[in-house]
Amino acid sequence: MGVPWYEGRFYVVALKDHVNMGFSVKGLSEQEKALFEGKGALMRHVKFYCLEDVDELRVKKMLKLVAEKSTCPCE
């Protein structure tokens, strides 16, 4: 089973107790990387345990940032 990638910059995967949304942070500043969870050099994520955890404005901000500034982690 694979995880669907979108534009080579982010993915969404449903796990047993949460949904993980991962983002390429390659090319982002340290301050921009701090918006995400984890310490990965190429990929970081956010976790959602229930619908109330989803902050739509935050997700939009992260998607826009990654679309505009990050590069595919495979490059």
Q: What features would you describe in this structure?
A:
The chain is α+β, with helices and mostly antiparallel strands. It is globular, with a radius of gyration of 12 Å. The protein has a four-stranded antiparallel sheet with strand order 1-2-3-4, with helices on one face. Strand 1 and strand 2 form a beta hairpin. The chain has one domain. Helices cover 24% and strands 25% of the residues.
Give a brief rundown of this model.
By secondary structure, the chain is of the alpha+beta class. The chain has one domain (5-69).
Instruction: Please give the number of β-strands.
Output: 4
Percent range for β-strand residues: 25-35%
N- to C-terminal distance: 23 Å
Element string (H = helix, E = strand): EEEHEH
What are the segments in which pLDDT stays under 50 over at least 5 consecutive residues? none
Average the pLDDT over all residues and give the rounded result.
88
The main pleated sheet reads as: 4 strands, antiparallel
Please render the helix and strand layout as text.
Blueprint: E1 5-6, E2 10-14, E3 19-24, H1 30-33, E4 43-48, H2 56-69
Antiparallel strand pairs: 1-2, 2-3, 3-4
What would the keywords be for this entry?
single chain; 75 residues; alpha+beta; four-stranded antiparallel sheet; globular
